[in-house]
Amino acid sequence: MASFQPWADRPFNLIETPSQTRSIDSHSAVYCASEMSHVHNAIIRGLNSIYQQAPNVSKSQDIEDFLFFCHAWIEMVEHHHHAEEATMFPKIATFTKNASIMAGNLEQHEAFQEGLHKLHDYALNTKASTYNAAAVTKIIDSFAPALIKHLREEIDTFLALDKYDSQGLLKVWQESENAAKSTKNPHVFDLIFPCVLGCVDKTYEGGIHSFPPLPFFIPYLVQYWFAAKHRGAWRFCPSNMWGQPRPLAFSGKA
Question: Does the predicted model carry a pTM greater than 0.85?
Fold first, then answer.
């Protein structure tokens, strides 16, 4: 984990990976929950990066880039939740023969959607000349508790699937993962990939995790091709495209 402060592990705390205390070989539920925690921690780091850097941008170009980073982070969150709702949750319901097994998670999605949409509207429609950092943090404060609660509790939902067949659950996970990768979302490469990679911490929990599971050349492709168009926005990522933590560019700390 990053040693410099302030960093993107605050103010909203990261999630301990289940594989820290339970073997992923014991049941695929532990593997799935651990992989989900990596995704959720990337979301939390992105949110922390927005929250901490919002008060410290003042130049027009920096503000525009920051607002675009907010937009990209929201696209990342919505892509993740759309993949869950469209593919993963229905597959889990079919696999478990329990139509309501993920109902609580769906309800939690709804609990923070309004605030997420407000932040997205602000990011897309605010000019540098009218930017107000307090407005950004106020919107985040309105939905962050519900979002963080969901991100934490969904890990427990996946761990509770250990009562079902391990191989069957792993197949559901892999099918859902493949469906998410084959999405038609036009922003996957130029927005979502840079945001995900830039919000990963390869040193987290001693650097024992290999996430995201991508070929070695993908970070190079993202860094030097897909991320180039909006390069200014990725300055707000807490890590580089290889998942190596770096000081927040606009932490306010000289």
Answer: yes
